[in-house]
């Protein structure tokens, strides 16, 4: 379980550090965008009041608190699930997912929305969406849970 907690703490700290830098040092809220390695990597400020790609993006307190509650329930369920999982990579994957989810929950509590700022485009396709470190960790963690859980289970 230590690997899960460590991965979770690292992701949370990295996520919140990058958000702090973007909001307080780069002042991306005022600037709006910064081209880093166009078009591959750009910083584009977006406040996400909903879930992925702005779904359920209603600027209401009820939706905000429902999304916080859902994220906390999923986080607790994954942590509980990992108590019986012995695969180290599965536990690291769970830590990535939990750290990312808690990073976005923190944003919703403190800012009222999730701070998204990474934008990537390539090959003539312009991506209109922004995301953050927590989103990447959640995605990688979810894929890892699919790949690494149940590997020790006996098949019939």
Largest sheet: 3 strands, antiparallel
Number of helices: 5
Order of helices and strands: HHEEHHEH
How many independent structural domains?
A: 1
Quick take:
The protein has 5 helices and 3 strands; from the N terminus they run ααββααβα.
What does this structure look like?
The structure is a single chain. The chain has 156 residues and is α+β, with helices and mostly antiparallel strands. Helices cover 58% and strands 12% of the residues. It has one domain. A 3-stranded antiparallel β-sheet has the order 1-2-3. Strand 1 and strand 2 form a beta hairpin. Helix 1 runs parallel beside helix 4, helix 3 runs antiparallel to helix 4 and helix 4 runs antiparallel to helix 5. The longest helix is centred in the first third of the chain and has 24 residues.
Keywords, please?
156 residues, 58% helix, 3-stranded antiparallel sheet, globular
